[in-house]
Amino acid sequence: MDKQGFKKLEYHFPDADQVQTGSQSFRDTLASRRSVRHFSDNPVDASVIRNIVMTAASAPSGANKQPWTFCAVQNPEIKRKIRMAAEKEEYENYHGRMSEEWLRDLAPLDTDWHKEFLETAPWLIVIFKKSYNLDKSGNKTKNYYVNESVGIAAGFLIAAIHLAGLVTLTHSPSPMNFLCEILERPENEKPYLLLPVGYPASDAVVPDI
Asked: Of 47, 33, 198, which Cα lies nearest the Cα of 119?
């Protein structure tokens, strides 16, 4: 099938055994992923973070609009500002905003408003969603299925982090508007997810669930 603006799909058809083995291997690999709150400060090369982000950016999106921005933060001063702002919001959450049911559900995870991992982890990746784009003249152009598209990209990102041999945590202090201010993002971008990225601490523990 020849259509202008298209190219032939390059695809190697695997046999049934390859499909079975590949699907089981990928399942087993991702099943070993855990959310980690105890990070090592061992450095991670910027090229690794770039590869991870570019993997996430290959995710499908509505009308291929790619309605996302990934901000990779390594600067200690900026990470400190993010931690302080996040802990301020989280303190309010744990001391009045969260319902008793929510707090009971969090209790087995032993979490609180302290978020030291936001400084310890060598990198923070902040995902922003773009409800609309701005052209060169500042005019708004529409994006489609924004939450769905950014959610898929976030899944790609988390899988890429794990496959690189690193760990992360899906962190979403609410509200997250402070990230727009600290990272100086334009008006069409809203925070979607904050992920510390790095190696686990040597004494890291995770809930036995």
From this structure: 198
Question: Which CATH number fits the domain that encloses residue 145?
Answer: 3.40.109.10
Q: Which helix or strand (DSSP H or E) is residue 167 part of?
A: strand 167-168
Residue 154 has φ and ψ, to the nearest 5°, of -65, -40
What's CA 14's distance to the chain center, in Å?
31
Query: pLDDT-derived band of residue 2, with 50, 70 and 90 as boundaries?
Result: low
Distance separating alpha carbons of residues 52 and 127, to the nearest angstrom: 13
Range of the domain at 182: 60-198
Residue 165: the pLDDT is: 97
Confirm whether 134 is domain-assigned: yes
Residues contacting residue 143 through CB under 8 Å, at least 6 positions apart: 62, 63, 65, 67, 130, 131, 132, 133, 149
3-state secondary structure string across 2-16: CCCCCCCCCCCCCCH
